[in-house]
Design brief:
196 residues; alpha+beta; 7-stranded antiparallel sheet; 4-stranded mixed sheet; 24% helix
Length: 196
């Protein structure tokens, strides 16, 4: 009788372990089927689509929900560039007609792109990392080696991009050969003087 009780207890424990394993496996399968449900956007990695929960195309109110507001956004304007209250240091946003079109990393930013580059990195290293996917163009106001390095999510483009659905990253390289600013977003990343 004792032997039967011991065997029964082991069988029950085995079944319980198998059932728990199936549920873990089911959860893992559900996670694999819908990765965004379990993997949050990393708030310190800039992509062509945004930074963390802040995504290109959001309204001013949606940006304010994530990063807080700023006195500048109290009145809708055609174009505004500002630093939201809770945004990471050195990160500014551009809103055009009430929608987020660009995120800019500037001085004091420790945020990096999804390729690991940020303010202070070498323009040469960026060209080497991206290879043929990067399009270099001379800087508008500074002499070489100052240049703008564009990487479009939908491939290389040598022409001015006007498609509002386009997304890309622009590295502004200064005359010292180092990145001074990084812009992410729609075709507004091509604008040289903030809104113009």
């Amino acid at each position: 009788m004792i032997r039967f009780a011991a065997v029964s207890a082991v069988a029950l424990l085995t079944l319980a372990a198998c059932d728990r394993g199936e549920k873990s496996g089911e959860a893992a399968s559900a996670s694999a089927a819908n990765p965004s449900a379990t993997v949050p956007a990393v708030a310190t990695v800039l992509t062509a689509d945004g930074l963390g929960a802040v995504r290109i195309g959001m309204t001013a109110a949606e940006v304010a929900t994530v990063w807080g507001a700023n006195a500048v956004v109290s009145e809708p304007m055609t174009c505004q560039v500002y630093h939201p209250d809770k945004a990471p240091d050195g990160v500014d946003v551009m809103l055009q007609d009430g929608r987020l079109t660009r995120i800019t990393l500037g001085q004091g930013s420790s945020v990096k792109t999804d390729r690991g580059f940020g303010v202070g990195d070498s323009g040469i290293a960026i060209k080497q990392a991206y290879g043929g996917a990067v399009f270099a163009q001379p800087a508008k106001y500074d002499p070489a080696p100052a240049e703008d390095l564009f990487v479009w999510a939908k491939g290389r483009s040598t022409a001015y991009v006007v498609d509002p659905a386009a997304r890309g990253i622009r590295y502004e390289v200064g005359k010292d050969g180092l990145v001074s600013r990084v812009h992410s977003g729609d075709p507004s990343i091509q604008l040289v003087e903030n809104c113009g």
